[in-house]
Amino acid sequence: MEIVREHDEIKAPVDVGTMEPAMTGRGLRLSGAILCLAMMTIAIPALAADLTVTMQKLTQDGTGADIGTIAIAASPEGAVFKLHLHGLPPGPHGFHVHENDNCGPTLMNGVRIPGGAAGSHWDPDFTGKHAGPDGEGHRGDLPRISVGEDGTATQTLTAPHIKDIAALKKHTLIIHAGGDTYSDEPSLGGGGGRIACGVIQ
Ligand SMILES: [Cu+2]
Question: How far apart are the CA of 94 and the centre of ligand 1, in A?
Answer without folding.
Answer: 6
